[in-house]
Design goal:
alpha/beta, 6-stranded mixed sheet, 3-stranded antiparallel sheet, 9 helices
Length: about 250
């Protein structure tokens, strides 16, 4: 028998912060991380947003870290009283937490020793056993413990942290996506045929996306997959379906 396909590398994102849920801050990290992971062959499977409440953060971390290969968190690692992500991750993983000498040294690259007050030292509190994630912008590091990657919520810093941690991650085969123009054919006209094709090609993801453009109504069908042969076969069948439906309309 042929070897089974390797298990996909999966991920979830946990966005932490009252400011996101209130609408005061508009999240700019989810889309960036999603695209970054897709380009690395990692399947993003779930996104959650939780408030700055310890019990909810701990519960979400434990639910997601056991379900996926990686859990990425954003937000809650700053110097203020409501920055509790590091403590919550330590609690979820079951380890202690304290000021890490490595993280403290990183902060001192940017902050004078006399200015390293108790609030700023909060950014150097790291769960025991965690690896640090470098932050070339403000120096306050993120960290990785087991499969949990903890990053800042500020987009520019989060993006720098992603670049720092990416070489440590397992990756899978990249997903290829191809777009098929369905023109002005209504979704209801090809939905049944598309479902049959999708069932025949379980390794290919098929989605239909209608939109309104300046030129009028438009439908696009997107096929995604890791195996070129399966992707090509599904695309051929979809194009044949659309050609037949267009012919029936003329």
């Amino acid at each position: 028998m042929p070897d089974a396909s390797p298990a996909p590398v999966t991920a979830a994102i946990l966005v932490i912060g009252d400011e996101i849920l209130s609408g005061r801050t508009k999240d700019k990290n989810i889309g960036y991380i999603a695209e970054y992971l897709t380009n690395s062959g990692i399947d993003l499977r779930e996104v959650r947003v939780v408030p700055d409440v310890a019990e909810e953060i701990v519960a979400a971390v434990n639910a997601l870290r056991t379900r996926y290969t990686y859990l990425f968190t954003t937000g809650g690692i700053g110097p203020t009283h409501d920055d509790i992500t590091a403590d919550c991750v330590a609690q979820a993983v079951g380890v202690g937490i304290d000021v890490d000498p490595r993280a403290r040294a990183m902060l001192l690259e940017r902050i004078k020793p006399e200015d390293l007050n108790e609030a700023r030292l909060r950014m150097a509190r790291i769960p025991f056993g965690a690896e640090l994630i470098e932050n070339p912008i403000s120096k306050a590091p993120g960290f990785m413990i087991e499969n949990v990657i903890v990053m800042a919520g500020v987009p520019s810093i989060m993006q720098a942290m992603m670049d720092s941690v990416a070489p440590r991650l397992k990756t899978g085969a990249r997903v290829t996506a191809e777009t098929i123009e369905a023109g002005n054919l209504p979704e209801g006209g090809y939905a049944e045929g598309l479902a049959v094709i999708a069932k025949a090609h379980p390794g290919v993801s098929i989605g239909s996306y209608p939109s309104m453009t300046p030129a009028g109504f438009r439908n696009q069908i997107v096929v995604r997959g890791r195996e070129p042969e399966a992707l090509a076969a599904a695309r051929t069948e979809i194009e044949a379906l659309l050609a037949r439906l267009q012919a029936e309309r003329t």
